[in-house]
Fold these 3 entries.
Entry 1:
Amino acid sequence: MQDSLQSSYRQLEQKSKYTNIFLRWFLYLVLILFASYFIFPLYVMIVTSLKTMEEIRQGTLLTWPSALNFDSWAVAWGGRGYGAGDTFLKPYFWNSIKMVVPAVFFSTFIGAMAGYVLTKWRFKGDKWVFLFLLFGCFIPYQAILLPMARTLGVLGISNSVIGLVLVHTVYGIPFTTLFFRNFYVSIPTELVKAARIDGAGFFKIFFKILLPISAPIIVVTVIWQFTQIWNDFLFGSTFSFGEAAPIQVALNNMVLSSTSVKEYNVDMASAIIAGIPTLIVYVLAGKYFIRGLTSGAVKG
Amino acid sequence: MFKWLEKNLPKIVMAPAVGLIGWFVYGFVLWTLYISFTNSKILPKYELWGFGQYEKLWASRKWLIAVDNLLIFTVLFLVFCIVIGIILAIFLDQKIRSEGLLRTIYLYPMALSFIVTGTAWKWILNPTLGIQKLFIDWGFENFTFDWLVNREMAIYTIVIAGVWQSAGFVMALFLAGLRSVEDEIVKAAKIDGAGIFTVYWKILLPMMRPVFFTSFVILVHISIKSYDLIVALTQGGPGISTTMPALYMTQTAFHKSQVGLSAASAMMMFMAVAAVIIPYLYSELRRENAR
C-alpha cells in the first residue's frame, strides 16, 4: 500500500518533470521566435547596406553579402562628389550634434533646478506648478506648431540650428523636471534642512549636496533627452529645411528623393548612420535608458 | 532688498521653467484655439468666424479617413502591443537564461527613430524585392505581399512597424510590474496548490491593473501623435489611404496653407489627448497624495 502510493507519487513527479521540460522548451522557442522578429529588420538593414545593387536584385532580404562592401556607407556619408543634387548625411549629422548638445544641456539644467525647488524649497501651490509643467509632456505638438513657426520667424531664427535648440530645450523641460523631481523627492529633506541651519544658501546646497549624488538621474535625463532630440522628426521637418536640417530630416529626404534608380543599399546605410548614435547609447547604457523610459511613463 | 531676494530665490529660479512652459505650451495652445475660430488662410486673421473651420473639418473626406485610420491603428496597436508585451514579460519572468540579452533585443527599436525604422520597414515590405521575393524564393511561387501599395491594406503595414517598435516598451513596463510583486504572494498561492497559469491569470495579472492603465495611456498617446512613421513608410499613401490626423494637420498647415482649418484639426487632436491624459494625471496625483 505504502509502496504503491509512493510509486504513483513518483510517477506523478516524473510526469510533471516531463511537462516542465516541455514547457521550458516551449518558453525558449517563443522567446527566440520573438527575438528573431525584433532582430530581423536590423539584420536586413545591415546586410542590405553591404550588398551591391546587383546582389540585392538577385538575392533575397536574408542572403548574406558576398563581400564586406562599404561603398554604400561611403556614399551615404560623403556623397559621390558630383556637387549639386548630391545629398549625403555628413553635414546633417553635424547639424544634429550642434542641435543636441546645447539643447540637452539647457533642458537638463533647467529641469534639475526646477526639480530641486519643487522638492526641497517647497512653496504654496508647488503641486499645481508641477502639474502645470507635467501637462507639457503630453500635449500633441501639432497644437503648437503654427505659433512656434511664427515665433521663430519673428525672432529671426527659423530654419536654423539655434531655432531647433530653443524648441527642443523648451519642450524638454517638462520631462527633465519630472525626472529630477521624482529623484529628489526620494532624497531625505533632513539633509537640506541641516545644511540650511549651518548657513548654506540655495545654490550652495544644490551644488554641494544634491548635485554630487545626482549622477544617476543626470545620466537618465541626458540619455532620454539625447534620444528624443536626436530622433525627432516633427520639429526638424517643420522648422528647418535645406542646409539647416537635422539628420532625420535629411535621411527622409534622401530616401524619398530617389531620382532614377532606387539604391536600397545606400538607403539602408543612411538609416544605420542616422540610428547608430542612439543605438550605441542604448547598448552601452541600456539600464539608464530603460529607467528613463519607464519612469517617464509610469510616474508621468 | 537682499532679504527679499534670498527669500524668493527658489521662485525666481523656478520662473524660467514656468515662464517658458506657460508661454510656449499654454499660450501657444490658446493661440491655436483662437485661430481655429477664425477664417485664417495663409496668414492668421484675428476676426472671429465661429465654428466654421470645425464644420469644414468634419465635412472633409480626408479628415474622416484620417480619423478612421487612427481608430483602426489605435485598436490594433493597443491590442498587439499589450498582448505581445505581456507574453514576453511573463516568459522572461521564468528565470530565463540570458534574459538580459533578450530584453535588450526586444527593446532596442525604442532607441531608434521612426524615420530609421520606417525606412527599414519600407524596404522590407516593398512588393518587388522585399518579403514577397523572399517567400517566392523559398518556393511559395504565388505568394504576394503588396500591402504597402494596396489602398485597403497599407494602414496595416503601419501597424506592423508600430507594434514592432513599441511592444518591447510594454514588455519593460510589465516586467517591472511583475518584479515588484512580493515573492511571498506567489509562494503562498503555490502552497495552496495553484499552478503557474492560475498564479498569473488569477493573481498576478489582476494586480497589474495600474500597468495596464499606464500602457493604455502611453500607447494611445503615441498613436494619436503618430506622424514620423507614416511619413517614412507611406507619406499617407497610396492616395490618401493612410492619412492620420497628425499628417493631415501638417499638410493642411504647411502645404495647403489653410491655417484656420489646420488649427481646428490640431485642437481636435489636443482634445483627444486631453481626454485620455487628464483622468490619468488625476489618478496619478491622487495615488501620490495617498502615499
Entry 2:
Amino acid sequence: MSDYIREAIVTGVWETFVMTFFASLFSYIVGMPLGVLLYSTSKGRLLENRAVNFVIGLIVNITRSLPFLILLVLLIPFTRLVVGQSIGTTAAIVPLTIGAIPIVARMVESSLNEVQPGIIEAATSMGATPLYTILHFIIPEAMPSLLQGGAINVATVLGYSAMAGVIGGGGLGAIALQYGYYRYQKDVLWTTVAILIIMVMLIQEFGIRLSKKNRKT
Amino acid sequence: MENVYELKNVYKTYKNDGKEFTALKDVSLDVREGEIFGIIGMSGAGKSTLVRTLNRLEEVTSGTVSFYGKDLASLKPKELRKVRHSISMIFQGFNLISQRTVISNVEQSLKIIGTPRAVRREKAKQMLEIVGLSEKANEYPARLSGGQKQRVAIARALAADPKVLLCDEATSALDPKITGEILDLLKKINEERKLTIIIITHEMSVVEKICDRVAIIDNGNLAEIGEVKEVFSNPQSKAAKKLVFPSNPFDPSDEKGQIVRLVFDGTQSNVPFIANLVEETGLKVNILSANTRSVGGIGYGQMIIELPGPAKDRQTVIDFFRKGGLSVSEVSRNE
C-alpha cells in the first residue's frame, strides 16, 4: 500500500468519524423528541392524541422505508439549500441525519415503552404534570435501554456514512469504492472493511459499557 | 369530625370492544378524618378501581367523589394536580424509580411541588428516619428487599405532608412477617401524624390488625360497611360472611347428619362451651374446625361442629348454645 493511500485512509477515518458523530448528534436532537412524542401520544399514554401520533408515525414510516441510497439522491437539493453544497463530508451529514431521525425516533419509542406503567401511575398520583413525568420518571427509568439503543443507532449511521461515499461524501466508504472497487485494490478494500468493523465494535462496546454502568437493577 | 371523602352513588363502567363492564355499582360511603379505613374484597371485586377514583386516576361514570367537600370530577387539570399533592398513594409493586437512589426517590414528591433542593434533602432524610431506612439513603432500590422498598415508597408518600394515604394492596407482595412490620409502621404514622389512611386489601388479617372501619366490596357493590369489630363479629351480608368465616370443607358423616356453625362475638370467648355442654346435657358434638382471631384485643371466633344423631338431641344442643349467646346456623359443604 502506498503512502498516498495510507494517508487517504487516515483522512477517511477522520471523515467517517466526523460524519457519524454529527449525524448521530443531530439525529438525536430531532429524533429523541419525536420518539418521546410517538410514545406519549400513543393509545393509553399520558398525552394520548391519535391525530398527532398518526401524522408523526406516517412521516417516520415513510422516511424509514426509503432505501438510504435513494434518500441520498432525493435529498441533494435540500442538502444544497442547507449547507450550500451537495458533495463533501459536511454535505453528507444532512442526508445521514435525515435518514437516522426516524430510526432514532422508533428506537426511543420502543425504549420508553419498556417503562413499567406503575411508575407513571405513581408520578400521576403525586400530582406530576405529563412533562414532569416524562422528564423525571420515564426517561431516567428508560436510560439504560436508551443508551443501548443509542449504540445501535450510531453503528447504523456509521454504516450509512460509507454509502455517502457514493455521492462524494468522503470517508472510508469512498476510499473502499474508489480504490478497492474501481481500481481492484483488494488490500485497500479489506483494510477499510476491517477499520469499519473495528469502529462498529468499539461503538457497540462503549454503548454496552455505558448502559451497564447506568443500569442499577 | 370532618369527612375526608364522601362518595355518593358512584358507578364506573368500562367499555371494551363494545362490551360493557360495570366495575362499581352505586357505591356510597364516607371516610372520616384520622381513621384507618379498610376496603376489602376478592380479586376482581372492584376495590382497586374504587381506590383509583379517590385520586381520579380513574374517572367515575356517574356519582360524585368529594375530597374535603370538593367534587374531584369538577377540578381542572391544574387544580387536580394540586389536590393530588395532598393525596399520597403506595402500591403493591412499590413503583420506585430503579435508576435513582433511595433518597432521590423520596425527594420526588417534594420536587414535584417545587420544594428547594436543600429543604427537600433534609425532609427526605427525616422521612427515611421515620421508616427506619436512614442507612440506605444512597442505595439503589434493586439492592433493597420488598419490605424495604415499600418503606421507601411510604417515605416518598409522606414527604409532601399529605392529608390522606391510599394503600393499594401495599402488603400483598410481602410475606406475613414483613406485612406485620409495614402495618405497624402505618399504624404508628396514623397515630403520630393523625394521617387518614385508606387500605385496599384482599387479606382479612390486614383489616383486623389495623383498620378502624371496613367496607366490603363484592362484585362492584358495597356489601357492608361498619366498625371492624361489628362486621367481624356479626357479618350480615353473604360477601362479608364469606370473607370472615373460612368455608366449611366438610359433608355430614351420614345423610341425616347436621353441621352447624357457632359464632363467638367476643364476650363469650372465655367460656368453655363444649365442656359445659357435655357436663350439663351429656350430649357429645364433633368439632370439625375452629378458629379465633383477635380484633382490638377481643377474641372472635367460629366453630364448625357436627351434631349428634336424634333430632331431639340436636335441638337440645342448639338451644344450649343459643342460651349462652352464641349464634348458631346450619351450613352445608363449602359454605
Entry 3:
Amino acid sequence: MYEGGIYRTNYKEIDMENTSQVPVTVLTGFLGAGKTTLLNRILTEQHGRKYAVIVNEFGEQGIDNDLVVDADEEVFEMNNGCICCTVRGDLIRILSGLMKRADKLDAIIVETTGLADPAPVAQTFFVDQDVADRTKLDAIVTVADAVHLSSQLVDHHEAEEQIAFADVILLNKVELVEDNDIVKVNDRIRKINPFAKIIKTTRCDAPLDEIVGLNAFSLDRVLDIEPDFLESDHDHEHDDDVTSLSFVSDTPLDMDKFQDWFGNLLRTKGQDILRSKGILNFKGEEERYVFQGVHMLMDASPMGPWPKGKNRSSRVVFIGRDLDNMNLKEGFENCKSA
Amino acid sequence: MNADLEKLQETNKTELERRGSIFNIGAPATEAVTIRDQIAVGFGDGTVRFFQSGSDPKTVKAHKGVVLSMTNYDDHVLTGGDDGRFLKISSDGNIEEIFNFGSKWVDCVASHKDTKVCSSGKTVYIWTKNKDKPQTLEHQSTVAGLAFDNKGKRLAVSRYGGVTVWKLNNNKWTASNYTWKGSHGTVTFSPDTKYIVTAMQENQIHGWRINDKADLAMRGYPSKIKSFTWVGDTPYLVTSGSSDAVCWPFDGKEGPMGRKPIVVANGGKELATFVKALNGEKAVFTGFTDGSVLLAEIDESKKPIMIRSSTGAEVSTIAISSDNSQILIGDMKGSILLSSLWADN
C-alpha cells in the first residue's frame, strides 16, 4: 500500500446555529409490540404535519405516501472500526437525500427492526457531520408489549437495550394485563431506565405530539427524573443485566476534574455504558451544562443560566452493564470542588 | 497563460454576475449536466430545467420528490429520483419512464453511448441497445456510485467495503473487487483509466491502481469530499472537502504516492463543496459553503478570481457548456447563476 501523503489545513468550525435541524425520532420495539400500528397512525392520521418515515420492509399495502422510504438496515463500521463508530450507513445516505427536498419536513421517523441494537442508529447522529449539521436526534421511542416484555427481557438482551436506550416508552397492550402486573412491568422498566417517560397505551393510542417532536434528547428532561429513582438500586440478579445508577450533588463540581474523569470513563468503559445523561453545576459558571452520551460518544453544551429560585444541583445518570465495577460514585464525588 | 484565461482574469465577480442571469428556483439544485448548447439541472422539487443563454429555462416536471442523480445520454438526460423512477428526458419535455422501482430510490445513474444504467438498492440495472429487459449486477451492500471508463468496457460500482469493477466481455460482465474498509461513495476512473478513485463517507478519498490493486489513501481533509474533477493533462484530481481545492497529481508511474497535493483557491473559513474543471485549461472552478465560486489555475503562485460572490447557500453544482462559453452555478437554496464566461471583447 502507498499513501498520497497527508494534507492538513487550518479549518475553523462552520457556524451552524442558523441552520435549522430537522428532528428525527427513532422507533424501536420488539416484534409484535405494536410498532406497525404506531407507524400506520403516523402515516394516516390527519395531523397536518409533514413526516418522512424510513422503514424496513414495510408490508402495509394501500398507504399512498411518497414520504415512506425503504431502507436496508446497513450497519457498518467507520474509521478504525471502534464500536462507537458503528453507524447506519443507509441512514446517512437517505437523510442526505431527504435534506435536498424542496418542501420542509416537520420530522423524520426511523423505524428499526425488532431485534436491532439501537446504538448504531443513535451513533449515526454523532459520528456523521452532515447528518449532525442538518438533523438532530429528537427521541428514541420504544414500543414495549405489556404482556410479553418481562419474558423478552429475560430471553433477549436486545429487548433490554431497547428499553435502556429509550427516551419514551409506550407500554402497549395494557388492556390485556392485570393492574398489579402493569405495576410490576413498570417497575422492571424503571430499574433499567429511570429517565424514560412511560406512556401506557392500548393500540399505541398516545397522542402523536407526545411521541414526535419532543426535544427529548435535548436533555431538559434530565431535570424531571422522579426523585424515587434517584436512589440507586443494586438488587439485580446477573452482572450482565442492564441497570442504572444516578448521583446528585449540591456541591458545585470542578470542571477540569469532571472532564478528566468522565472522558476517561467513556474511553475505557463506554462499551458497557449504553446511555449517560447529566446536568451539571460547575464552580464559577453561571450557566447550566448538560451532556448526553451513547456508548463512547458524548455531546455537551451550556444550556442557559439556572432558573431563579431553583436548587443548583448536579445530576448524572448512567444506564449500562456492570456499572458497579466502575467506581462511579467515587469518581463523581471526586469531582466536587474543594 | 492562455489569452482567454487572461481576459477572464480582468473581469470581476460583479462583471460575471452583472452580465449573467440569476434564477431563483426555490429548491436545491442537485445535479447539472451539459447537453450540447444547453445545461440541464435537476432540483429538489423533482423538476429538471434546461437552461440556455438568452432564453428562459424550460421546466420539465419529472419526479415527485428529489432528482437524486442525472447523467447525459445523447441529447437527453437520464435521471433517478426518490419516487423510484428512472427516466429519460428530452429538453422539449418528453419523458420516457425506463423503469419504476416503487418505494426504492434510484440512487445512481450512468450511461455510455446507447447503454443506460441505474442502481436501486444493492442492484445495478443495465439496459443495452434494443433490449427491453435489463441485465442485473448484484452487490453485497447498497450501491453508492457508478462510473464507466472512457471506452464503456468497464463499469465501476462503489459500495461498502470498496469497489466492484465489472468488465464486459462477449456480452458478459465479470467482477473484480477492490477492497478498502469503510463506505465508498462517488467513484471515477482517471482519464487514462489506470486508477479508480472514490470519495468515502469518512473525510478521505481512496484510490486503487487498477492493474495491481495498489492502494492510495488520500487523507487529512476536515470534512467529507462531495465532489471531484479531473483537471489538465497531468492530470490532477481536484477535490472539495477542505478550505482549498486540493489537487492530487496523477502523473508518472506512482501517481500521488508519497507526494503532497497542490492547494489553490483558498476560501478562508469556507469549505469547498463543489469543483469543476474548465475544459482544456489547467484551471478549476471551486464552489464553497457560502455560495461563492473561485476560478484558479493549478498553480499556487497565481491568485484565484472571484466568479460568484457569496449567496449564503452552499454551492451544490457547477456545469460548463460544451463550447466553454457559459457557466451555470447552482446552490442548495435553488439560486442559479447562468453567465457567459468570457467578456464580449
